[in-house]
Amino acid sequence: MSKPRLHILALGGTIATRPDASGAMQMGLGADDLVAAVPLLGRLAEVEAETVSRVGSHSLSFDQIHALAAKIRSLKADGILVTQGTDTLEETGFLLDLMLDLDIPVIVTAAMRNPALTSPDGPGNLLAAVRVACDPWVRAHAKALGVMAVMLDEVYAAADVLKVHPTRLDAFASPQTGPLAALVEDRIVPMSLPVRDAIEAARTRIGKASGGAAQPVALLWMGLDEPGRLIEAMLAASDRLGYRGAVLAAMGGGHIPERMADSAVRLAAAMPTVVSPRAGGGPMLRQTYAGPSSEIALRKAGLIWGGRLNPLKARVLLETCLRAGLARDTIAEVFDAFG
């Protein structure tokens, strides 16, 4: 039986760094270097490797990921692997999931430890990602699994995975759902299929959205005694400081400080404004608490409820909806499907 044909697209990140003269790590390795570091890959698949960029994921843009999605759609392969930095993997993976509707495995992987350290995890993560892409269960359920992230021998749905620690090897998790599968010995052990109704409904409304212009979305984190002056500055500026939408990372089940409730309501009247849980995700309340800054009042005033999406993913979805030219009511319907 022929081996699967896999296409690796390298974007940069810790997995692709090397030390400069001072010993500091700099971007530099390309896709061929990553493949050469894992000789076993050739036994598992026919691998074609391509360097797309050499930048840290903290410097990637929405436009670059839309272009990457278009490139992935154009490839003829049995599976696609994207290597990148971990800083924005939870965001880029989610955006790819919104943009791609393929029946082949699409996997994002990265590294937490750079290649100059004694035990870098990049080669192991790349090998694990290739093993997952070649696995019969994964290939049979690729459309149902959607875009996946493979890190430290676990497989996560890109829509659910979060970076939960800045430096540790076990930096990635899906707190709400758990992993889709685990790698044990030479096996892929399936654990679950994701619930993808909301993703599929969003994709139907959004289309490919790659032709639209970038739509900057403000991310405003709510904290103790927040006065809302950034919102007031946006409202005072004739161009809203260049922003076309906003995400409020709210407290608890969907609350903001009462002192800034009026500002938030006026912001929602000026641009699509999504409320998302700063706790990291999970469906928020809809009808429990009263008061001007409670979920009941904010929803009635026209703020869009982000459901189970954490603020980073809510910002990705809102930017994509705006880029696709969706009206505010339609955007609210897209978010409503996320709970």
Q: Short summary of the structure?
A:
By secondary structure, this protein is α/β, with parallel strands linked by helices. Helices cover 33% and strands 19% of the residues.
| Largest sheet descriptor | 8 strands, mixed
The helix count comes to 13
Determine the structural class based on helices, strands and strand pairing. alpha/beta
- Strand order across the largest sheet: 4-1-5-6-7-8-11-12
Number of structurally distinct domains: 2
The CATH class label of the largest domain is Alpha Beta
Q: Whole-number average pLDDT?
A: 96
Give me the strand/helix succession: EEEHHEHEHEHHHEEEEEEHEHEHEHEHH
What are the segments in which pLDDT stays under 50 over at least 5 consecutive residues? none
- β-sheet strand percentage: 15-25%
Find the CATH topology of the largest domain. Rossmann fold
Question: Which architecture of the largest domain does the CATH hierarchy give at level 2?
Answer: 3-Layer(aba) Sandwich
* Termini Cα gap: 44 Å
The global form is: globular
Number of strands: 16
As a percent range, the share of helical residues equals 25-40%
Radius of gyration: 21 Å
Could you give me the name of the CATH homologous superfamily of the largest domain? Answer: L-asparaginase, N-terminal domain
Verbal overview:
By secondary structure, the protein is α/β, with parallel strands linked by helices. It has two domains: 5-195, L-asparaginase, N-terminal domain (Rossmann fold); 208-336, 3-Layer(aba) Sandwich (Rossmann fold), CATH 3.40.50.40. It contains 13 helices and 16 strands. The strands form four sheets. The chain has an eight-stranded mixed sheet, with helices on both faces. Strand 2 (17-19) and strand 3 form a beta hairpin. Helix 8 (197-206) packs antiparallel against helix 13 (328-336). The chain is globular and about 60 Å long.
